[in-house]
Design brief:
With 79 residues, the chain is mainly alpha-helical. It contains three helices and two strands; from the N terminus they run αααββ. The longest helix is centred in the last third of the chain and has 13 residues. It starts with 17 loop residues before the first helix and ends with a strand.
């Protein structure tokens, strides 16, 4: 079933671009001593890009079915 809001097709993971994969790998391997995902700033610093660029990449990762973003700080769930 396709989401009218974001275009994601439930249960289907669309292949990622190399930069999207880098962000995904960083999220998966991130460890700061807590069980939380990285902040936008931590991802932007790691990727050497802007906060907006990270926001765009996370939106695409969600649309492609690799993550789910929930409201609140560090609200990223890897699917």
């Amino acid at each position: 079933m396709k989401c009218d809001k974001c275009g994601h097709v439930s249960g289907v993971k669309v292949p990622l671009t190399p930069k999207q994969q880098d962000v995904m790998d960083f999220i998966i391997t991130f460890d700061d001593g807590s069980d939380k995902t990285p902040t936008y700033r931590q991802m932007a610093n790691y990727m050497n890009c802007s906060h907006q660029s990270i926001s765009d990449k996370l939106r695409e990762l969600e649309r492609k079915g690799h993550i789910y973003r929930v409201p609140g700080a560090r609200g990223i769930a890897v699917l």
